[in-house]
């Protein structure tokens, strides 16, 4: 194992120290692996709904990178790929929750559901207003005839939910209204990924699964959980097409369930997530194909976000998240945030074709 760490048992603690010392807008709650907004005790800030998320470490910038004005109020960090304990979650709730209450945004994994749920029950018994939303955006294990039975895993699409809910809370909406907007985003977003390599948990010291030299895994989870299938390595376009076929099928099935008769003209935002060890070159090649597939399917692509959003340590691979949008959802995505993990580039629709990206060459005298 080659990693720039000191000791496996101190890696998370030292990472947290590096985060809070580098970014003065956030603080650590003493004695807990909880990162909060530095202004979380400001009376004006506490008038708004607080947002809390978290999970195992190793997915950076999730979740600490999304703490800031306009996104999360607090992030709770467990050990690498391990859910934080109920006491850690409860410390976050007690620290940032004011009269407006708080919303826990939880990815759909058993440990996270149980531990965040137990903390929420204790906090409610103390008189705090606490709502909890489970996000399961993974479509890998949903076949055409398989109903959504609640087993879909939480993936990088959760970051869209953070952004929409964070902007709604910053706008001063009540808890019920923030929950409604977050639920709509969570219900609409669809994600699937591809892994080209495994990753190594520092405390384990060896890869947590193995792939053959010519194998990739479609639809794996962010902890390396088994996906839809293992296939032979092929051209990038072929793998993107396979991912987009599953994503579009689920996306369109959800649209039909909500009463829409066609996907043509549907407005969407895309989040292209580097799982940790993918080059910028590869991510741009994937982005090119995703945009082409959406154009062919007659979607209206309003926003593209590309980079590190929810990683799996050093795993090579990408995930693709598709979110249906309206003008009001775009307002939430475009709203300002101080969270360091969200892109700061100007928000505008991508260009519709390769030709539209070209500039005339200079004339030669």
Describe the structure.
The structure is a single chain. The model has no long low-confidence stretch (mean pLDDT 93). The chain is 32% helix and 20% strand. Helix 3 crosses helix 4 (110-125) and helix 5 (158-170) packs antiparallel against helix 6. It has helices at residues 11-22, 43-46, 86-96, 110-125, 158-170, 175-188, 236-257, 280-296, 327-334; strands at 26-28, 34-37, 50-57, 74-80, 102-107, 130-135, 190-195, 215-218, 229-232, 267-274, 300-307, 317-324. The strands form 2 sheets. The chain has a 6-stranded mixed beta sheet with strand order 1-2-4-3-5-6, sandwiched between helices. It contains 9 helices and 12 strands. It is α/β, with parallel strands linked by helices.
What layout of secondary structure does this protein have?
Blueprint: H1 11-22, E1 26-28, E2 34-37, H2 43-46, E3 50-57, E4 74-80, H3 86-96, E5 102-107, H4 110-125, E6 130-135, H5 158-170, H6 175-188, E7 190-195, E8 215-218, E9 229-232, H7 236-257, E10 267-274, H8 280-296, E11 300-307, E12 317-324, H9 327-334
Parallel strand pairs: 3-4, 3-5, 5-6, 10-11
Antiparallel strand pairs: 1-2, 2-4, 7-8, 7-12, 8-9, 10-12
Helix pairs in contact: 3-4, 5-6, 5-9, 7-8
């Amino acid at each position: 194992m080659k990693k720039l760490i000191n000791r496996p048992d101190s890696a998370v603690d030292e990472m947290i120290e590096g985060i809070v010392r580098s970014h003065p807008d956030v603080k650590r709650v003493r004695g807990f692996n909880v990162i909060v907004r530095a202004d979380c005790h400001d009376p004006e800030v506490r008038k708004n709904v607080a947002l809390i998320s978290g999970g195992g470490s190793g997915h950076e910038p999730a979740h600490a990178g999304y703490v800031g004005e306009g996104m999360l109020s607090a992030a709770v960090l467990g050990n690498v790929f391990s859910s934080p304990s109920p006491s850690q979650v409860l410390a976050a709730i007690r620290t940032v929750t004011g009269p407006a209450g708080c919303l826990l945004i939880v990815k759909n994994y058993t440990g996270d559901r149980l531990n965040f749920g137990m903390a929420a029950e204790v906090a409610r018994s103390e008189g705090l207003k606490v709502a909890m939303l489970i996000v399961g955006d993974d479509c890998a294990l949903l076949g055409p005839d398989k109903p959504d039975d609640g087993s879909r895993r939480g993936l990088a699409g959760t970051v869209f939910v953070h952004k929409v809910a964070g902007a709604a809370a910053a706008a001063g909406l009540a808890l019920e209204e923030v929950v409604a907007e977050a639920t709509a985003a969570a219900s609409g977003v669809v994600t699937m990924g591809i892994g080209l390599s495994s990753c190594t948990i520092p405390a384990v010291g060896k890869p947590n699964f193995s792939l053959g030299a010519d194998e990739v895994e479609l639809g794996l989870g962010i902890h390396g959980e088994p996906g839809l299938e293992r296939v032979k390595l092929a051209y990038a376009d072929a793998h993107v097409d396979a991912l987009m076929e599953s994503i579009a099928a689920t996306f369109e099935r959800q649209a039909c369930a909500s009463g829409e008769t066609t996907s043509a003209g549907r407005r969407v935002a895309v989040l292209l997530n580097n799982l940790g060890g993918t080059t910028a070159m590869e991510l741009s090649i994937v982005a090119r194909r995703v945009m082409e597939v959406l154009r062919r399917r007659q979607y209206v692509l309003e926003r593209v976000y590309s980079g590190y959003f929810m990683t799996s340590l050093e795993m090579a691979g990408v995930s693709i998240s598709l979110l249906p949008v309206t003008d009001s959802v775009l307002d939430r995505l475009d709203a300002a945030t101080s969270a360091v993990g969200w892109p700061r580039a100007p928000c505008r629709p991508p260009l519709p074709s390769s030709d539209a990206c070209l500039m005339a060459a200079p004339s030669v005298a």
